[in-house]
Design brief:
alpha/beta, TIM Barrel, 7-stranded mixed sheet, 3-stranded antiparallel sheet, 33% helix, globular, binds iron/sulfur cluster
């Protein structure tokens, strides 16, 4: 029968040991993120570049940036200390696919030294179509795309600009390109049998009602899980919607939206919005045990 969240059995088989997809695996398997990707190719209104990418991580956190070589060393050190470590993700601090050299170098090193570890990557999707073939070579079976809109008019309120093909685009033009690239990337992943999870940031008054439409658009293109996250609003995180600031949703508003989308597809309700250098079981953070100076001192 189907597993948790009533995922289809063939998908459940793939994700049952993945702590981020299975509530049950949370308690037994650990994951880690390495922060090797500093640059970003778009601007989200809720992002302050001093901190980790707010699409995949808890806002307001500064992760320690690593080179691919340091990251590979860290993965080995963590795997020998925490044997339940099954998943390595690259989620920031910027956009992993806006830093393809660093991201793919890290995957290459880890595939060589720790081939059993599953790899995953998250992206805003702008560069995704250019990298799907390379991703499929590295045996990366989970990609997270943050999709906050499928309507460029809504997108123009969320993204002040994107940088694409050596040019800066703004307003509706920018949002239209971003949306087309995100959906194209999702379709390409689905065609190649790579699982896609969609993150959406719920921004009251901006995209809250629209996310039902996003849910339908991503489901019809084969996404297997939709994770609607609350905007975590604090001026120091860089939430700059208008002069008065933008509030995040209440817990009730978030749940009501998730309920509306349920039935449409599987909803993820336990994502913790981990930092880009998180280490350990979900709900615990052992990143402080594995800082670069400590890793480099381990031989
Ligand atoms: Fe910030 Fe991530 Fe948006 Fe880039 S994609 S602007 S790093 S929140
Ligand atoms: Fe899993 Fe969410 Fe944490 Fe990523 S941010 S490791 S999906 S719980």
């Amino acid at each position: 029968g189907a597993g948790e969240n009533d995922l289809p059995p063939e998908i459940w088989e793939k994700v049952k040991n993945h702590p981020c997809y299975s509530e049950e695996a949370h308690h037994h398997y650990a994951r880690m993120h390495v922060a090797v990707a500093p640059a970003c190719n778009i601007q989200c209104n809720y992002c302050n570049r001093k901190y980790d990418c707010a699409n995949e991580s808890r806002p307001g956190v500064v992760s320690e940036k690593l080179t691919p070589e340091q990251a590979a060393k860290k993965v080995l050190a963590v795997a020998s200390t925490i044997p339940q470590m099954t998943v390595l993700g690259i989620a920031g601090p910027g956009d992993p696919l806006a830093n393809p050299e660093k991201t793919f170098k890290t995957f290459e090193l880890i595939a060589k030294t720790a081939p059993d570890i599953k790899l995953c990557v998250s992206t805003n999707g702008l560069a995704l179509p250019d990298h799907v073939d390379r991703l499929s070579q590295y045996n990366i079976d989970h990609v997270t795309i943050t999709i906050n809109m499928v309507d460029p008019e809504v997108g123009a309120k969320i993204y002040p600009w994107i940088y694409y093909n050596k040019k800066r685009y703004t307003g509706v033009d920018a949002a239209k390109i971003l949306s087309e690239r995100q959906l194209q990337g999702l379709e390409m992943l689905t065609e190649r049998g790579i699982l896609s999870k969609i993150n959406s940031v719920m921004i009251p008054g901006i995209n809250d009602e629209h996310l039902v439409e996003v849910n339908k658009a991503v489901k019809s293109r084969g996404a297997f899980l939709h994770n609607i996250m609350p905007l975590i609003s604090a001026p120091e995180h860089g939430t700059v919607f208008g002069l008065t600031g933008q509030r995040g949703p209440t817990a009730q508003e978030l749940k009501a939206l998730q309920d509306k989308c349920e039935g449409e597809m599987n909803m993820m309700r336990h994502c913790r919005q981990c930092r880009a250098d998180a280490v350990g079981l979900l709900g615990e953070d052992r990143s402080a045990e594995f800082t670069t100076d400590k890793i480099m001192a381990m031989e």
